[in-house]
Amino acid sequence: MTSELGKILPRVLIVSRRSVRKNKFVDFVGEYHLDLIVSYGAVPVIVPRVSGVHMMLDSFEPIHGVLLCEGEDIDPSHYQADISGLSAEELDEIRRLHASDTSIDREKDSIELRLAKLCLERNIPYLGICRGSQVLNVACGGTLYQDIGKELSKDGKEAVAHIDYDNYDGHRHPVRVIENTPLHSWFDESLKPDQGMELMVNSYHHQGVKRLAERFVPMAFAPDGLVEGFYDPDAYNPEEGKFIMGLQFHPERMRHSVTDEFDYPGCPAAYQAFVKAVIAYQRKVSGSIAATVLVSKMDGEMEKKRKIIVRSFSKARDLYASRGTVSSEEHELEVGAEFLESNTALSSQQETRLKQMGATVRNASSYAQKLKVNEEREKLARKVMAKMSIEQLSELLSFYHMMGQTCSDVLERKLMATF
């Protein structure tokens, strides 16, 4: 079972985005996301944005990682947005300017919020890109700007242009990277202290983090103060399968238009670290499953042994009750005798009663003598055990501990009822 689990590549769930083509819905995921996930050793599993899928997420198990990216605005009801500062006319203007984003998709919201909360509950690695970072913040109790430009201008701030429909892929704006964060380590060779530790990132959004959830630490800010990246430091250690992060920009799309090369060497690093965490998480989960299978297997073997020993005791009881007239195979009685001989936790009163009961075909004096473990036999037993594997020793210890206690309790009750 363990070897079979090891052959399964880790699975990263990605929720598709819905579009319309030839008057029919089409679900899609950007190829850059898929290429990077595959190139670093994981398998992308696309969760289609189809009605009812949010109730079927168990069918996508095992889940070793979740990548959420791109999509429409999240329904404000999920974070109780205060839009009292925006007039009806302003809200209508926002819908006209960003028509493709403001058409809320409640089914996608439901699927992605459930996945985000599942990751938080089970410590499954999570990478949120653009909308995916907003989903993560909302899932943890944070809020979003309904429209960055409108709301910041009301606060007397000048908003950065976070989207440019006329220069969609080519648009860039600066962000200041915070030191001692994963983002800083990935882009370290491209960051210059004398240039303000800035990167030029792409931008495809009109909403963003307004109040960052308490568990997160910012990794980058735009000049207008918008959080462009954040992570949970207590849930970040890719080598141990820990990764909870959100990036407002798209590092996978930060490429030169002609050569398709990345703007910076650190651009794919988020995906590389994410998949590393996914692989580590799979190993950790597979180990737990393998351990469960081993325990189950051991329990099955112990149950077989228990039945054999109980049968031996039953035969001995019948033999004693009939004063030796019951025909029994000697090896059946030997099993019970050997078990009792190995159990040194019996009280003197229990030993006396066992002798009286005649629990084995041996006479009382022979049985009493065999209960005293010979020093040489103990040394021999230690030598034998030294050659046993950890699994065998664990099984032996568990078996005798359980059976010793069970035998002592059951015999005590039965003997008290007999005498």
SSE layout and pairing:
Elements: H1 2-6, E1 11-15, E2 17-21, E3 24-28, H2 31-39, E4 43-47, E5 65-69, H3 88-97, H4 99-102, H5 106-122, E6 126-129, H6 131-139, E7 143-145, H7 148-154, E8 173-177, H8 182-186, E9 198-201, E10 208-211, E11 217-221, E12 227-231, E13 244-247, H9 269-321, H10 330-342, H11 348-357, H12 364-371, H13 375-386, H14 390-418
Parallel strand pairs: 1-4, 1-5, 5-6, 6-13
Antiparallel strand pairs: 2-3, 7-10, 8-9, 8-11, 11-12, 12-13
Describe the structure.
- The longest helix is centred in the C-terminal third of the chain and has 53 residues, at about 270-320.
- With about 425 residues, this protein is α/β, with parallel strands linked by helices.
- The protein folds into two domains: about 1-285, Class I glutamine amidotransferase (GATase) domain (Rossmann fold, 3-Layer(aba) Sandwich); about 330-419, no CATH class.
- The protein starts with a helix and ends with a helix.
- It has 14 helices and 13 strands.
